[in-house]
């Protein structure tokens, strides 16, 4: 995946100065815009953050004071009951057994409670008074106005004693919209707990005060206990995270703020009851201003970037155009074919013009030098090939003449004539003009005459087969490519084998080319000799043009590469004692099966 991306996008840019110049200018135009936009957004966010912090710290301080005053007023209601002489008389006369007196005192207690209840307002929904010595509980609310004798103290009374507090706020009611403010009744002389007074109050009594903080519909406003536990929030969905609750519980009293991972938390202590007023502002609300600034900045930046890109492309294109033109001119120079004109001079007088003039003059001199060297080498190699073609292996010629001499006396004249005709056709093919390619059909016909003679020489011992698959005979290859390789198989492989000889030639299509395989069961080669031969074959046209006094394997490989390129040539594999396998690969051209005298290619 990464390699494909690099091939498609990175490499083309690396090879193009125009692309590099365009990208550089675009980055120079766009990056400052992005940096300025980001800086403006951060400045806006910082400014908004500072303003929000200062405003909310001030609001929290004053709202906490107002809330404390409201709780003080509720406390004063309790004090009104506590300091009433009738309550003192009732608590001091608990040992008297006069029933009528007790009833009269209870009526006075109800009168006190009723007076406070109806004067407290709609937010106080109930008042309770508990006397510990007699277990008496007075209760007044909209649905109840009675007195009860309890067998055990109320739970909240025990909570006062257990926590060693004079007052607590109880939110254990089933109705989350209400709470109870409970204060103990203590004897003045020794602070002995005589009972407790409880006011049942609606939390909504504080909503008007909490609205002073602003944003209650979007941001969380809460009243929490000293342990960080939420006691009241105007919005049900406002929740204090566990991280914030733990932090609050560890803080000392007083106003302040802290940050969590998701929000800013402002707090203030509500005196005299020790509760905390909390406001939670999500970070996204503060960041919204920065987002708006960034949105407008990105819009302006996008327009500016688009104009910058357009300007950068135009400037880069015009600046790089002469360089690209010069590069294309260099790519299009043909230093060998003099029929192709060299790039014309543009007439520029700057540095590009100087490069163009020098390139043109250099190309003229290099072309002249290459053409001279090419002509000399071509004439030399053509002369070498003609000299080799004019020869035939003297051992093969001698053995063939002896074969003909023997057949004149022992065989029919027709058989002798076939050998003479094959030898004559070989000479005729060899002495033809060598400068052009030959068809695979012509090469196989030449190989046919050679194998016809060899089969007569080694009749009964040589087993030769030829297989051709597909229409491949019109494909071309350098002249005298097949017969020299087969001749090498006899000279360096089969002649050293005592058993029967096998020689197989197979030709078939292979992708966009033709694969010719010549395989023998001769002596083969050891690994060291095979490695050296493969190195020479890999040298291609840089190897020796001729090898000894005959057209050798390296010569054939070099000519195939010279004509068709490095994709084609010869490969070889061999195993000592088992034979050699030579593969020739050439380009493919369509054609039919038209080999002459097919009867000569028998098994």
UniProtKB/TrEMBL annotation:
Transmembrane segments: 21-41, 296-320
GO MF terms, alphabetically ordered: protein histidine kinase activity
Membrane topology term: Multi-pass membrane protein
Major enzyme class: transferase
UniProt-listed InterPro entries: Bact_2-comp_sensor_kinase, HAMP_dom, HATPase_C_sf, HATPase_dom, His_kinase_dom, Sig_transdc_His_kin-like_C, Sig_transdc_His_kin_internal
Reaction(s) this enzyme catalyzes, per UniProt: ATP + protein L-histidine = ADP + protein N-phospho-L-histidine
Domain HAMP, first and last residues per copy: 317-371
A Pfam family the protein falls into: HATPase_c
Residues covered by the Histidine kinase domain: 482-590
Enzyme Commission designation: 2.7.13.3
Keywords: ATP-binding, Cell membrane, Kinase, Membrane, Nucleotide-binding, Phosphoprotein, Transferase, Transmembrane, Transmembrane helix, Two-component regulatory system
The protein's name: histidine kinase
């Amino acid at each position: 995946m990464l390699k494909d991306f690099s091939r498609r996008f990175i490499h083309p840019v690396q090879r193009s100065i125009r692309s590099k110049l365009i990208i550089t200018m675009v980055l120079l135009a766009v990056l400052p815009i992005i940096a300025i936009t980001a800086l403006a957004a951060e400045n806006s966010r910082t400014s908004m953050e500072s303003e929000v912090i200062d405003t909310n710290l001030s609001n929290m301080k004053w709202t906490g004071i107002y809330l404390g005053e409201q709780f003080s007023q509720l406390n004063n209601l309790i004090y009104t009951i506590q300091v009433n002489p009738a309550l003192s008389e009732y608590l001091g006369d608990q040992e008297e057994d006069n029933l009528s007196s007790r009833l009269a005192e209870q009526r006075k207690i109800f009168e006190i409670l009723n007076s406070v209840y109806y004067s407290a307002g709609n937010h106080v929904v109930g008042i309770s008074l508990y006397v510990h010595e007699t277990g008496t509980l007075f209760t007044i609310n909209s649905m109840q106005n009675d007195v009860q004798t309890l067998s055990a103290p109320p739970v909240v009374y025990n909570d006062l004693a257990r926590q060693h507090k004079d007052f607590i706020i109880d939110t254990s009611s089933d109705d989350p919209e209400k709470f109870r403010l409970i204060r103990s009744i203590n004897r003045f002389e020794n602070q002995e707990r005589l009972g407790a007074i409880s006011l049942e109050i609606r939390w909504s009594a504080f909503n008007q005060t909490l609205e002073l903080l602003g944003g209650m519909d979007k941001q969380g406003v809460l009243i929490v206990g000293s342990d960080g536990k939420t006691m009241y929030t105007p919005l049900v969905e406002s929740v204090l995270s566990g991280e914030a609750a733990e932090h609050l519980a560890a803080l000392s009293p007083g106003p302040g703020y802290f940050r969590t991972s998701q929000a800013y938390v402002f707090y203030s202590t509500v005196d005299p009851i020790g509760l905390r007023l909390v406001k939670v502002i999500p970070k996204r609300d503060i960041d919204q201003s920065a987002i708006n600034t960034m949105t407008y900045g990105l819009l302006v930046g996008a327009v500016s970037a688009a104009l910058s890109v357009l300007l950068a492309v135009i400037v880069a294109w015009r600046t790089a155009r002469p360089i690209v033109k010069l590069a294309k001119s260099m790519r299009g120079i043909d230093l060998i074919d003099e029929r192709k004109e060299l790039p014309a001079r543009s007439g520029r007088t700057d540095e590009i013009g100087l490069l163009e003039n020098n390139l043109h003059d250099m190309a003229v001199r290099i072309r002249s030098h290459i053409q001279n060297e090419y002509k000399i080498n071509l004439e030399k190699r053509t002369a070498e090939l003609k000299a080799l073609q004019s020869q035939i292996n003297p051992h093969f010629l001698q053995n063939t003449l002896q074969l003909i001499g023997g057949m004149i006396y022992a065989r029919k004249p027709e058989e002798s004539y076939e050998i003479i005709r094959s030898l004559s056709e070989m000479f005729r093919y060899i002495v033809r003009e060598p400068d052009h390619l030959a068809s695979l059909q012509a090469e196989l016909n030449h190989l046919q005459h050679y194998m016809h003679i060899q089969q007569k020489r080694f009749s009964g011992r040589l087993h030769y087969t030829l297989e051709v698959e597909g229409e491949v005979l019109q494909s071309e290859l350098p002249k005298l490519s097949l017969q020299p390789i087969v001749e090498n198989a006899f000279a360096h492989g089969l002649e050293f084998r005592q058993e029967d000889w096998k020689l197989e030639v197979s030709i078939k299509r292979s992708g966009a080319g033709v694969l010719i395989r010549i395989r023998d069961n001769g002596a083969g080669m050891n690994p060291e000799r095979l490695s050296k031969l493969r190195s020479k074959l890999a040298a291609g046209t840089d190897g020796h043009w001729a090898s000894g006094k005959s057209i050798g394997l390296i010569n054939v490989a070099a000519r195939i590469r010279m004509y068709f390129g490095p994709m084609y040539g010869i490969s070889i594999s061999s195993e000592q004692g088992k034979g050699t396998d030579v593969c020739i690969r050439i380009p493919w051209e369509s054609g039919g099966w038209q080999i002459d005298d097919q009867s000569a290619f028998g098994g």
